[in-house]
Amino acid sequence: MERLDGGVVGLWLDRPAKRNALDRALVTALMHAVEDRAARAFVLGSAEPGMFSGGADLGLPDSERASVSDLLYQLYGRMLASPAPIIAVVGGAAVGGGAQLALASDIRIGGPDARLRFVGPGHGLAIGSWGLPSLVGRGRAMELCLSMRPIDAVEALELGLFDRLVDDPTAAAFALAASIARLDAAAVARVKAVVRTASGVLDALEQERRGNLDAWSGAVR
């Protein structure tokens, strides 16, 4: 975590040897970080350029992987509930849980090498179905979830998965975060709350979480 002047906080995924795979320690650290009520805006990205996150750590035992998967849903909920906007900087691959970290963010800025992939049903999981419809529409959400195909940066922008596509997404994210941090914090929080309610993502998130928790052992086929 990196605190900058003006209430901007940088949150860095920093497991480069594992392609920023998500384990309990990393997910727990992020959960605590987004609870920082002094923050006016967050920037979420990778400490290592050219990668975002390959999702849950496949090196974990099945039971632990299932537990981390459920913990991730708690993290997504906290990200959505945080009064401070979260801006995701997506460079390189964002797969599975990594792609859902981008979905749970309020604004997504991609780099030219970014690609997203919502890998789920092939492993017995529903992934992204809680957040994709409000961004890309019902039919496209179905296609992305069930095909599990990679989405490159240009298509992500065209579909609405990315809000901006720039050569230096980190610089763009921090510039935007700094401008947000200068706004009235209470008004920003109300905007976020209204958008969150209108999209219905919290109810959909809980539905997807519960289904995965009940049906998935953590085994990867």
Mean pLDDT: 96
**Treating each run of at least 4 consecutive H or I residues as one helix, how many helices?**
9
Shape: globular
Structural class: alpha/beta
Largest sheet: 6 strands, mixed
Beta strands, count: 9
Beta-strand content bin: 5-15%
Biggest sheet strand line-up: 1-2-3-4-6-9
Query: What is the ordering of alpha helices and beta strands?
Result: EEHEHEEHEEHHEHEHHH
Distance between the termini: 34 Å
Radius of gyration over C-alpha positions, nearest whole angstrom:
16 Å
**How much helicity do the residues have?**
40-55%
Indicate the low-confidence ranges by residue numbers. none
Describe this structure in words.
The chain has 221 residues and is of the alpha/beta class. The protein is 47% helix and 15% strand. It has helices spanning 24-33, 62-81, 97-104, 132-136, 138-147, 153-159, 169-181, 185-199, 201-215, and strands at 2-3, 8-13, 41-46, 86-90, 93-95, 107-110, 115-117, 151-152, 164-165. The strands form 2 sheets. A 6-stranded mixed beta sheet has the order 1-2-3-4-6-9, sandwiched between helices. A 3-stranded mixed beta sheet has the order 5-7-8. Strand 2, helix 1 and strand 3 (41-46) form a beta-alpha-beta unit. Helix 2 packs antiparallel against helix 9 (201-215). The longest helix has 20 residues, at 62-81.
